[in-house]
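re: that chain from earlier
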Amino acid sequence: MSEDKAKCPIESTLSLISGKWKILIMKALSRGPVRYGELAKEIPPVSAKVLTQQLREMEKDGLVTRTIFPEVPPRVEYSLSQMGASLAMVLIALREWGLTRDKVHAVECTYCNKCQDITGLKFD
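^ sequence. v structure.
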């Protein structure tokens, strides 16, 4: 890659996970493959249009794998790719920072089991 086209690594990583819902999508997918409807229930404030758009961007960027099962009706599952799962440390760092460093906002881990087992990711 030529130097004039190279990005700062922080800038590059942020460009992959930027977007209002991408981190929450990654958190939901960190526990394993999820169907679209389950994912929509997991993140209720997101509209179907935006969720689909974010998933497509994440798939294009190599963070998410979309698997279509040849059934009638077709079943589609989303999962983190190996590249997406490798960002688990970023999610863990965000969780830890929120719990230990955010002194301005009220933050509490409810141990909902939605983010505490991120280290046990299954790779594709």
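The chain has a mean pLDDT of 83.
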